[in-house]
Amino acid sequence: MSRDPSEGERRPQNQGPKAAPRNRAALIAAARHVYAEQGLGAPLSAVARRAGVGQGVMYRHFPDRDAVAAAVLEENVRQVEGAAAAPGADLAGALGVVTWHLTESAAFINLLHLDVAGGGEPVHGYAHDLSARVEVALRRLLPPGHRLAPDGALMLAVSMVSGAVVGAARQDRERRALAAWRLLAVEVGPVRPFPASAG
Amino acid sequence: MSRDPSEGERRPQNQGPKAAPRNRAALIAAARHVYAEQGLGAPLSAVARRAGVGQGVMYRHFPDRDAVAAAVLEENVRQVEGAAAAPGADLAGALGVVTWHLTESAAFINLLHLDVAGGGEPVHGYAHDLSARVEVALRRLLPPGHRLAPDGALMLAVSMVSGAVVGAARQDRERRALAAWRLLAVEVGPVRPFPASAG
Amino acid sequence: MSRDPSEGERRPQNQGPKAAPRNRAALIAAARHVYAEQGLGAPLSAVARRAGVGQGVMYRHFPDRDAVAAAVLEENVRQVEGAAAAPGADLAGALGVVTWHLTESAAFINLLHLDVAGGGEPVHGYAHDLSARVEVALRRLLPPGHRLAPDGALMLAVSMVSGAVVGAARQDRERRALAAWRLLAVEVGPVRPFPASAG
Amino acid sequence: MSRDPSEGERRPQNQGPKAAPRNRAALIAAARHVYAEQGLGAPLSAVARRAGVGQGVMYRHFPDRDAVAAAVLEENVRQVEGAAAAPGADLAGALGVVTWHLTESAAFINLLHLDVAGGGEPVHGYAHDLSARVEVALRRLLPPGHRLAPDGALMLAVSMVSGAVVGAARQDRERRALAAWRLLAVEVGPVRPFPASAG
DNA sequence: GATGAATGAGCATTCATTCAT
DNA sequence: AATGAATGAATGCTCATTCAT
């Protein structure tokens, strides 16, 4: 009788079990974008909407909002691990990948903060592990006697660079990150994701 | 039409206008604590509660969220300015005061971030000014040829140290901050407020 | 980071999506009642409470205050259109339906006011359209040379009758409305909703 | 230490008892303006501010928000009484004054509504009396056999004209009011306050 | 008598999470 | 397994009213 939004609407196809992994990936990608745009405080509904799924699906894949954040970070960490394990990898190159993540996503910055700092409320129990994984991955590439060889120096430096970058406008971040590494007298390779975009 | 506060209610003491400055101070102190514990996203009601005043009082003193944060930061900045202007001040000493604020208050860290980074949404228009004030105060003490003399290096370093500290547990902060300055090869004096607590 | 709904709480039945149309209707009905009793300024929470739904549901169905009001008016307008389009309809009969709405709901009166008067802030953009719809519906039934045929006279008269009725006690409204039409020398049919209640 | 609004501020002169009547008048004038601009829902603080007095003064003169509204209406009613009692007064002239008030102030319209309609919640007990006073004043001028002579017709007509005007944009009100009187076949004199502004 | 700060209830709105379908 | 409606607690903010000075 009155404008009824449900009238004549048609539910999207239920694509069955096959869609599950695709949905999970879509959710993570969506979260990355949304976090980058609105910060970690963004409504989960925005993530679900951008992923093109119902909110229920999100809760099927991630028990709560922190799990979503952790999943995003997990992917970032994998890239760092991948970069560090790649044939011919060296510290500068891996730090370039780390730096790319720092500059690319405000969310990553914050997550790494929570993390790297080793304090605060761990993000869903993952945080510490993730930080440790980054450290392990990078340490493998540390030449003996490197500036960052002393205990704790490596991750401390990463957190410092992230400090140089948080809150900065998107377009300033890479410049600031590089300036920060320079101030630390640490050499960094090209700032890019892993696997590096072709070229 | 009129609201009807039910009978028998007893209002807490209204201490009259005399209490206004006390309330304002209490609000800032409360904000400092609450921000330190819960971060800048903390509910304003928590601040009002801790200050022991009604929410209305808070809104009388500060028009919005950001004004509260700005008031907290303002105080911090004054300390830095004071330390830098004190007779016999030197850069190391002033950086010690800056560092004290970084370790003492999560709020200061975040605010300075917003600020120093020069991006994001300025906190109520104050942020930039405050950051500039810190920079001006410190620069005055920079010996020529100092490591941090190059343009932008000073505040970049501060933001890096703050990055080393955000998210860390309270008791780790000072240690981490000092390690960060060391990694930057910058000398820092005693970490303390200004005026320094006796001793 | 996650909110922590304390244990042991028991949610009322969630009746699932099936309830959506029912809820929407309940909200409109509740709004009609509440507006009639308390005027358009009534708290939305009162509407939600009377409809027996959470406030969130209301915001799902109606983005803001005005949308609620518009939905109520929309229904009224449909009735007028229906009455005017019914076989054998004449102006007096349609005005009877209009009058019924004026006497029945303080909300309708106010909304139509906002509307008919052509000024103020249109209610969510709907107001003007709705008013125009009423006018179009009624004008179709205007015999040539009718008292209300001159431009603007029709809706002006409606707004005048509504003026005779606003603020009056429920039980006086019909009498006052009829007296008003008489003063305007306009014939009005039985005051009743459309479709007319049997008999 | 921090920006303290109370620092260095100076209380306005306390002008003693002499100021009381002036304050009362200023409050009523302020209320008239504020209500005209923002409607009856306007914050009392806005009225006090515009009157240039503290809120306490307002509460000294008027026990609550309704009393303020009543005071405004009271003044309007006095004007109508004055116009009706003036030498050489006639109905058309007095209705012109009534109409002026209807068009001049949205607040008056609403107040008269509450009033004239004889229902709703009387405004602070005044409403009914005020409406009656208007009626008494005008009835005195009714020539026998006038269109509005029948019982109740007079105030009904006034409320109808007010209905024609509520919600209309300021600049349309006079036109609409005159159109309404014309539709009622009632003659109205110049639309102006009483005492008429010179000329 | 005047001032304006303090109080806190009240309302709009948002969003994490659950759950019927 | 997916959908998206429902729930309601939480939070920001406003404003009537009181009251110390």
TrEMBL record, chains A, B, C, D:
Record domain HTH tetR-type: where: 21-80
GO MF annotation: an example: DNA-binding transcription factor activity
Source species, domain of life: Bacteria
DNA bind region: 43-62
Keywords tagged on the record: DNA-binding, Transcription, Transcription regulation
SUPFAM superfamilies: Homeodomain-like
InterPro entries (UniProt xref): Homeodomain-like_sf (IPR009057), HTH-type_TetR-like_transc_reg (IPR050109), HTH_TetR (IPR001647)
Region annotation (Disordered) ranges: 1-22
UniProt cross-references to Pfam families, sorted A to Z: TetR_N (PF00440)
Bias (Basic and acidic residues): 1-12
Zinc-finger found in the keyword field: no
PANTHER family for this protein: HTH-TYPE TRANSCRIPTIONAL REGULATOR BETI (PTHR30055:SF234), HTH-TYPE TRANSCRIPTIONAL REGULATOR RUTR (PTHR30055)
The protein, known as: Transcriptional regulator, TetR family
Species of provenance: Streptomyces zhaozhouensis
